[in-house]
Amino acid sequence: MRITGWHVDGYGRFHDRGWDGLPAGLTVFHGPNEAGKSTLLSFLRSMLFGLRDGRTSDPAIPALAGGRHGGVLRVADELGAAWAIERHGRDLRVLDGDGTPHDALALGRLLGGVNRDVFEAVFAFGLTELEALGGLDEDALRDQLFAASLTGGGSSAHEALATLGRRVDGLYRPRGDSPLKTLDERLKALRAERRTALAGQEAYATLRAREADAADTIASLETRLRDGRLEQDRLARLARVWTLVDPLDRRRAALAGLAAGPTVRPSDVTDARDADRAAAAAREQLDEVAARRRTTADALAELQVDPGLLSAAEPLRALDREATAQRERLLARSGLRTAAGRLADEARGAVADLGPGWDVDEVLALDASLPARREAGRRATAVAAADDAVTGAETRAEEADRRVRGARGEVDRREQAVGGLTDRRARGVQGEVDRREQAVSGLTVGRARDPRTPAGQPGQPWQPGDAASSPDDLRGGAGNLPTGDDRSPAAADLPTPEGLDHASAALSEVRGALQDLLVRRGALRSEVAVLEELRGRAARPVRSTVPKDDRTRVSVLLLVAVLSVLAGIAIAALGQPLGGGALVLVGLVVGWADRTGAGDDADAVADREAAAAEAAAQEEEHADRVRRQEGRVATEREAVAALERTVREASPVAGLDPEEAAAATSTALVERRAGELDRLRDRRRAADVAERDLAAAQEDARVAAREADEAREAVAAARAAAREAGDAWRTWSTGPGLPDALRAEDAVALLAALERAQDAVRAAADASSAVEEADRALTTWSRRAATTLADAGRAPADALDVSAATGSTAPGDLAHDHDHDALLLAVADAHAAAQAAVAAQAQRTALLERDAEDADEADRLAARVATHATRRDEVLAAAGAADLPALEQACADTDRRAALEVAVREGDEVVRAEAGGGRDGDALIAEARTGAVTVWAARREELEAALPALDEERTRAIAARTDATRDRQALEASVDLPRIDGEIEAVRADAARLLTELRTTVRARELISGTLDAFVRDRQPTVLRDASAWFARITDGRYTDVRQTLQERRGKQTPVLQVVPAHGVALDPATLSRGTREQLYLALRLALVGRTARDATPLPLVMDDVLVNFSPDRSGAVAEVVAEVARTHQVLFFTCHPATRDLLVGAGGGDVRVEELTRG
Questions:
Q1: Label partner for 1 (CA 20 to 30 A): which of 23, 68, 166, 509?
Q2: How many other C-beta atoms lie within 10 A of the C-beta of residue 1153?
Q3: Is residue 43 part of a domain?
Q4: Cα–Cα distance measured from residue 839 to residue 847, given in angstroms and rounded to the nearest whole number
Q5: Residue 672 contacts by C-beta under 8 Å, 6 or more apart in sequence?
Q6: In b/e form, how buried is each residue of 45-77, taking b as 16+ CB within 10 angstroms?
Q7: Which Pfam families match (predicted)?
Q8: Of the candidates 331, 324, 332, the residue with the CA atom closest to the CA atom of residue 827
Q9: How far apart are CA 663 and CA 959, in angstroms?
């Protein structure tokens, strides 16, 4: 069965909303929180199985948007036939594709006998169900996973067995005391006593016979009643077997309709497909290689190489590398010749410039080296420096005298400026002192002060003469102003910088405390107002009656809600967001409750009672709110008092009236005092600057006088040094042979001229040598070039006299520069041709090598094409298929045939287990295949009508036995037997009751144990095998096996679920992480889905956000697994995470349908 769509008439937030055309694969319902995903999941469960307790609507998910609670679910059975399941409250309608109504049995057939518990345990689950599995013990987990598809799944089979075992032990224990053994011993004693009392009674046997006849009649009637009830049970079992036989026969018919053919495995299809692809790929590569070989052959045909050029390539390369130098020498040779003549003329002119009597030999003989010039320059510089030193010393002496005069004038001006500032400061300070003395009059000293501040005696009024209230104290803010000789006239009447800083720090403390105080006072007023309002509301009685007229109704709850919201907003605005938010939330809840119940006039009486109870609760809550508000008021008052103390304590240090500051309604007083402190600080800085300037001017005057004295001494020293430098020059100039009358500054110029003349003579000689060297180099290269060109078969032009170039050894073989140019061009052309030949030869070699490689590659590819084609043909021939599509169809037929064979075999086992063994079971199955549902129902109705009549007849027989018993008891009364018989009957009744309970309990335990063992034995291996495969897929092979083993626990063998990692020992699921454990339980459920689908009709798999606790790699693996399951089962996946939606869409490709849900 699969779901094709549904229509919601009224359920939660949905009204008149439908979805159609849902595919048989994967459908993802995505939307944010409160978009209705859980509502749709609950709707699907309700449509399939109804409301769990039979209510007409589900109060947890009411029809909020209107409409009748319920809707229509459209499904398709295994054969594709359309069905509609319609539910509204208790009303159920099951319609086929033609609109024909059917009974609830048709819905059971569609569900394949799966009930609600099995559906919710196996097919529809979310994160809550996965997490719930982690809290179960081993037995409970085993029941939940492997016994889920038993009728009544969800209850613990092991728990039932344990309960029944405890009850059996409590009824009868072979050894030790038990109720049945005690009753048996008591009955034996009473019978012996009764036999003794009845001895000699003649009529007793007759009465006992009447009782026995009545008892036989009762037994016969009870047998008929039991047979009738057994027949009822048989008919019910027959109906259940019919629901299993019907789909089994359809599978068997489908299996018979599949033609027998060869068995084709998926691996055969994969091998054939891979071989075909590999052959095609190899064939494409072979074509590419053949194309490359043709291109290579064409390129080889176009390449031609000259052997002569190839052999001369290296000499030509060497000549070409030297060609640039040859051109440069050729270009430079004429210049060198011209330069040699010019330098010879310059040398003659330089010698002539020295004056008459100088020749080349004398010029070269005189030492005009750099050391000689440096020594002459040093001595000349020393003479000039001595003269400059004398001039500089005299200039500095004059400048020092001017600075002394200027410094003395500056000192006079600074003294006048300081004197004027002192007069102005004195007048300003006196006014400030007078104002401060008036401000502090009447204040008392009773609070803590800064320990650095001198203070008057505690409790005494401040006086202007006190240390703490003097004018200096007020100006400095701390009373620590310097006094005596250490204060200059300008600063004697101003506070110290330390005192100003101390007063500013105290003023900042007052400012912060005062700002906090103003805020706290406002909060206190608001809290007091709220408290008064709450107290006023507490004094007013709350009326809880329900108005008769809707137009004049004044809801008490609404009034309370409005007041709570207003009070909450006020409290939040005053700095208490938590308390205010709580009141607002209470108001909204009360208002909602009032509005939702305002229109229900039919329940007026109940509303009055509820309103009265709510009013009492509100009064108690209001009293609590008043107490909490009183606590907040007390807290605010304490904070205000603490801030007032802080303001009063810091105000005197800052120069403020403590009481005035504490009573201030703003910070204006503090800001005025701050302005006054800033002005005092500016005056203090101005006085300090003036004093520093005066001291600096006095120091400058002293320095200037000292520098003037030093300058006069420097003049005398400079003059003595100048005389010593002149004497030293005259002594040194006689040594190098310089003219005696030559001055120091002229000697340097003469030596420079001599150096230039020497350089000119030497340069002329070097130029002549360079011309000769250039001629030799040109001739050598020309000879090599001509020889190489001849060897390469590249003779130069006719205009070039090569024979002369190669046969003569005298310079100037090529007399003209144009001959050299022609030779250079010939060498360049030959070198280019040789390089082209080398490149062509290298290219030819590379082409030949590549062609050989391509030939080898072509042989390998041809062999590969043949191998893969042969493999593909072998697989096709073995399967009897003409091509790949035919092979794939044969594989699909094989899988379908195998699945149907397994389903038929397992279905036969399930039917046999339900019908029972032997001929009775065969007869029951044969009768079930008749499908005579109407006949069975009629028989059940007959039994339901006949059994009450038999029960009445049994009642009459019991009455007859009662009469006989009464007569017997009258006879027995004569021998005083009532007590004994009464005790015997009581003991018999108790024993019969306990024996019946014991037999029923033992039989029930045997049935449950046998059924559970058979079920787990038959189905557990398949489930665990499939779960192992899924779990390995999800964990990427980290865990390879899921199994159940027996372990000794509390003296008995207990089955335990374990997981086996790829490399390691088996682990208990409790040791896994939360995400991995949930992945294990998901794999087990997917395995159960496959098993249950094979036993009964495949049902849709519904999952609700089961990936949220998985890591990204595991989430991707689970998405691929879900997409794979969706290829054979319909999957409806609900999620609020876009990433989960994208993973599922990516895993399913284009076969995934996405339904977007919104809050609107």
A1: 68
A2: 16
A3: no
A4: 12
A5: none
A6: bbbbbbbeeeeebbeebebeeebebbbbbbbbb
A7: AAA_27
A8: 324
A9: 104
Lowest mean pLDDT among 689-693, 960-964, 976-980: 976-980
DSSP state of 73: E
Quick count: other Cβ atoms within 10 Å of Cβ 721? Answer: 15
CA 804 to chain centroid, in Å, comes to 91
CB burial readout 788-807, b (16+ within 10 A) else e: bbeebebebeeebbbeebee
Beta strand 82-88 pairing with 17-19: unpaired
Q: Which range of residues forms the domain containing residue 622?
A: 509-662
Q: Where is average pLDDT lowest: 1-5, 45-49, 767-771, 936-940?
A: 767-771
User: 1112: buried, middle or exposed (CB in 10 Å: 19+, 13-18, 0-12)?
Assistant: exposed
HEC-encoded secondary structure of 180-236: HHHHHHHHHHHHHHHHHHHCCCCCHHHHHHHHHHHHHHHHHHHHHHHHHHHHHHHHH
Q: Is 984 helix (H, G, I), strand (E, B) or coil?
A: helix
Structure tokens that stand for 1090 in this block? 């496959």
Distance separating alpha carbons of residues 901 and 340, to the nearest angstrom: 116
Q: State what percent of residues in the chain have pLDDT above 70.
A: 76
Which residue reads 């459209």 in tokens?
74
Closest by Cα among 753, 825, 765, 818 to 789? 825
What is the Rg, in whole angstroms, of the alpha carbon atoms belonging to the chain?
61
* Count of other CB atoms within 10 angstroms of residue 533: 15
Q: Which helix (H) or strand (E) holds 1132?
A: strand 1131-1135
Q: What is the pLDDT of residues 135-180, one digit of tens each?
A: 445 555 555 555 544 444 434 455 666 777 787 878 777 777 788 8
Distance from the Cα of residue 37 to its chain's centroid:
24
pLDDT above 80 for 447:
no
The answer to whether residues 373 and 751 touch, using CB atoms and an 8 Å cutoff, is: yes
Cα distance between residue 183 and residue 984, in whole Å: 10
Domain membership of residue 519 (yes or no) is yes
pLDDT at residue 1092, as a whole number: 74
- What single DSSP character describes residue 63? B
| Lookup: tokens for 836 | 């082209």
* Three-state secondary structure call for residue 913: helix
Task: Count up the domains in the chain and report the number.
Answer: 1
**H-run or E-run covering 771:** helix 744-791
| pTM, 2 dp | 0.36
Q: The tokens of 1101 are what?
A: 């798999």
The Cα 729–Cα 734 span in angstroms is 9
Residue among 27, 38, 31, 32 nearest 4 (CA): 27
Domain assignment present for 587: yes
Find the length of the chain: 1160
605 found inside a domain: yes
Best CA proximity match to 494, nearest among 435, 418, 429, 444: 429
Query: What is the spatial distance between Cα 107 and Cα 89, in angstroms, rounded to a whole number?
Result: 17
Please provide the average confidence, as pLDDT, over all residues in the chain: 76
H-helix segments, 1046-1073: none
How do strand 26-30 and strand 1153-1156 relate by DSSP bridges?
Answer: parallel
Percent of the chain as helix, strand, coil, to the nearest 5: 70, 5, 20
Q: How many CB atoms lie within 10 A of CB 439?
A: 14
E strand or H helix that includes residue 173: none
91-96 and 101-102 beta bridge pairing: antiparallel
**Neighbour count for residue 275 (Cβ, 10 Å):** 21
Cα–Cα distance measured from residue 786 to residue 802, given in angstroms and rounded to the nearest whole number: 6
- C-alpha 258 chain-centroid distance: 52
Q: What is the signed CA dihedral for 200, 206, 212, 213, rounded to 10 degrees?
A: 180
As a whole number of angstroms, the distance between CA 541 and CA 514 comes to 42
Containing H/E element for 61? none
Which burial class, exposed, middle or buried, applies to 621 when counting CB atoms under 10 A from its CB (0-12, 13-18, 19+)?
middle
Q: Which two tokens stand for residue 923?
A: 């007869």
Distance of CA 180 to the CA centre of its chain: 67
The answer to whether 418 and 489 have CB atoms below 8 angstroms apart is yes
